[in-house]
Known about the structure:
Helix 1 links the parallel strand 1 and strand 2. Helices cover about 30% and strands about 15% of the residues. It is of the alpha/beta class.
Amino acid sequence: VHCHTPGPHRRPSGIVKAVLDDLYDDFCGMRMPAQVRIALACCLNMCGAVHCSDIAILFFGVFLHRKKP
Length: 69
């Protein structure tokens, strides 16, 4: 899981934890493909591989932006 949102914000880290908690059994039980890319970002304008991830979680809201879009 790759998170593009800065760590000091509590909401993204809680969302990342929720995603990992949900997928933990699948990863440990080897029921997932060999390489799965999961990305978390507050918008499509963030740099990184959100557009080419297998699972992308996007947020649309100003409360997660470091700078106003």
